[in-house]
Structure formats: structure tokens, C-alpha cells
Design brief:
Helix content of chain B: 55-70%
CATH superfamily of the domain at 12-83 in chain B: Winged helix-like DNA-binding domain superfamily/Winged helix DNA-binding domain
Structural class of chain A: alpha+beta
Radius of gyration of chain A: 17 Å
Strand order of the largest sheet of chain A: 1-2-8-7-6-5-4-3
Distance between the termini of chain A: 29 Å
Number of strands of chain B: 2
Oligomer: heterodimer
Number of strands of chain A: 8
Structural class of chain B: mainly alpha
Largest interface: A-B, 54 and 50 residues
Largest sheet of chain A: 8 strands, antiparallel
Number of helices of chain A: 4
Strand content of chain B: under 5%
Radius of gyration of chain B: 33 Å
Strand content of chain A: 35-45%
Shape of chain A: globular
Helix content of chain A: 25-40%
Order of helices and strands of chain B: HHHHEEH
Shape of chain B: rod-shaped
Mean pLDDT of chain B: 74
Chain lengths: ~170, ~150
């Protein structure tokens, strides 16, 4: 994929995780793709084999959103949602987020910032957890151990030394 | 948004230890050395400007994380790499990256499609505008008043 190399996951401070990616499109289109339900349903489909039967977005500060994904093989569902805190088209969205069956306590706040340069848009997606308890739970969860270290660095290591050992 | 990868809950404790152990450059270097074959503590201490106790401390962390084990030779007690935790950590990262790359890859295609749609629309409106202004220009130019006719 053309922009795969621009994808990164890093940790900021104690409570944040940051994903960045570059897209070959003006930011108002990226903004639309993140905020119009009929567009979100076309790309945020979850893991392979899942679909997104529910995507409801009330795009305004105080408005709610709700996403539900379904495993097409066994019918199991996974839902999440939250409330928009800030909506500044076409460059900034702040919203709370919580999974129906969250594996961490408390609520997270996601911030999406879009910066356009020469027709390309850099997306920065930050997730901020609300407390030390949440942060600690997330640290122990399967998703975010990487807090406090660079995934890139680890990947580089795993690529070189790791691969040798793994193929052994 | 962050999604939990499916099927990694049980491995989470161990992965935590794996990632913590891998966060240190000396420990990564030790693992890189052990990837080439087992080695004694003395061998391992050699390339580093470090005392043997300092190296032993790192080895203990790696051992607790299950990343290395001790060989049978009671005197040398060579350390060797245990590949499974690395494999788990690698798979977890792969999963996370693959998850988001799949979403973003689809977003790439959608954005391309939206842009194509816009260009088409804009192209049509440019043609309409051009045709319009041409008609307008033609209307203004009555015969005999065309530039250069005098």
C-alpha cells in the first residue's frame, strides 16, 4: 500500500497513544470520511470478516455517535460509542469513546487532527485515557503494552534479530 | 479509536513482560547476540562496557519474561533465546498494524473515489462555464465589431 510507510504508533506521556498516517487527499475529504456515516461505513469495517451494520453520527458538540461491528461468521457483535466534545470542520474532532464491553475502566477521549500540505493530509489520532487506573488497566491489556516505548524500534529489532530466531 | 485484537487476552500478561524486557537497548542487543546461538554470561558481557553483575541483571529480566533460558552445561550455564514470546509479540504487533492498515487502506480507496467524483463534477462545470462564457462572448460580438475588423 502506497502510504503504509507513513503509519506510526507512538506513546505520549503517561496516558496517551498516538497513531499517525498520511493520505493523498485534501483534509476536507478525510474529514468527511471520518464524520459522514455513509462514508465511515465503507472503510471502518473492523477486522477482516467483520462488517459495520450500525453507524450513527450526530455531528455537533454534545451529539452522540454509535458504531456496531458484526462478525459475519458467528454473528457476534462489538459496539462502541461516545459524545462529540468538539467538531471543527475540516481539521479537528474530539469525542469520548467507550466500548460496550470495555476491557478498561473509565472513558477515553479521542482527538483527530488533520493537517493538509500540498494536497496531502496528515492524520493524527490521539487516544487519551482518563485516569491512572484506566491507564494502568490499558497497560495490562492486550492492546497497548507499547506505552513508554516505540513500536517502530521494537519492530526494527524484531525484523532483524527476531526473524533469525523465529525462522529457527 | 483503539480496537482489541481478537484472541490475545490470555497472552496479555506475558506480552507485557515481553515488551517491557524489549524496551531496553542492552537487552535487545543481548537477544540479537543470542539469536546467533547460545552464549555464556562472560561471552555476553564482553561486547558491552558493563560489569558482569550488570549484565546478569538484564539476563534476569529477560529470563523472567521467558525470552531466554539456561542451557544444561552446569559450569558455563549458557543462555539461549526462547523464540516463542518473540513470536507472540511479533504476531500481536502484526495484528495491530494489519488491523489499522486494513482500515486505512480502505480509506485510501474511498478517498481516491471521492476525489475522482469531484474531478468529474468540476470537469463538467468547467466545460459548462467555458461553453457559457463562449456563448456570452459570441453574443457580445456582433459582426463588424469583432477585434481586428476595423
Amino acid at each position: 500500500m502506497k502510504n503504509s510507510g507513513t503509519f506510526s504508533i507512538t506513546a505520549h506521556g503517561d496516558c496517551e497513544i498516538v497513531v499517525t498516517r498520511v493520505f493523498d487527499a485534501p483534509r476536507r475529504l478525510v474529514f468527511d470520511a471520518y464524520t459522514k456515516a455513509e462514508l465511515v461505513k465503507r472503510w471502518l469495517l473492523g477486522p477482516e470478516g467483520w462488517s459495520m451494520p450500525v453507524c450513527e453520527i450526530d455531528l455537533r458538540a454534545g451529539g452522540k455517535y454509535r458504531y456496531v461491528w458484526r462478525n459475519d461468521a458467528d454473528g457476534s457483535e462489538m459496539g462502541m460509542g461516545g459524545i462529540y466534545r468538539e467538531v471543527v470542520a475540516p481539521d479537528r474532532i474530539v469525542a469520548t469513546e467507550k466500548f460496550d464491553e470495555a476491557w478498561y475502566p473509565g472513558e477515553a477521549v479521542g482527538t483527530i487532527v488533520l493537517v493538509e500540505r500540498d494536497g496531502k493530509t496528515t492524520l493524527t489520532q490521539t487516544i487519551l485515557y482518563d485516569s491512572r487506573a484506566t491507564r494502568d488497566a490499558v497497560l495490562k491489556s492486550p492492546m497497548q503494552y507499547g506505552l513508554g516505548m516505540s513500536y517502530d524500534r521494537l519492530e526494527k529489532f524484531l525484523d532483524s534479530a527476531g526473524r533469525e530466531a523465529l525462522s529457527a | 479509536m483503539v480496537m482489541e485484537p481478537i484472541g490475545y487476552s490470555q497472552a496479555s500478561g506475558r506480552l507485557d513482560a515481553t515488551f517491557a524486557a524489549l524496551a531496553d537497548p542492552t537487552r535487545r542487543a543481548i537477544l540479537a547476540r543470542l539469536a546467533k546461538g547460545e552464549a555464556s554470561v562472560t561471552d555476553l558481557a564482553q561486547p558491552f562496557a558493563m560489569s558482569q553483575p550488570a549484565i546478569s541483571k538484564h539476563l534476569r529480566v529477560l529470563e523472567r519474561a521467558g525470552l531466554i533460558s539456561r542451557g544444561r552445561d552446569a559450569q558455563r550455564r549458557p543462555r539461549r533465546l526462547e523464540a516463542q514470546p518473540l513470536r507472540d509479540a511479533n504476531r500481536w504487533l502484526e495484528n495491530y498494524r494489519r488491523f489499522w492498515e486494513a482500515q486505512f487502506g480502505r480509506l485510501d480507496s474511498l478517498l481516491r473515489e471521492l476525489q475522482r467524483g469531484e474531478r468529474k463534477k468540476r470537469g463538467k462545470s468547467v466545460v459548462r462555464k467555458k461553453a457559457g462564457s463562449l456563448r456570452q462572448a459570441q453574443g457580445k460580438l456582433s459582426p463588424g465589431l469583432a477585434p481586428g475588423s476595423e
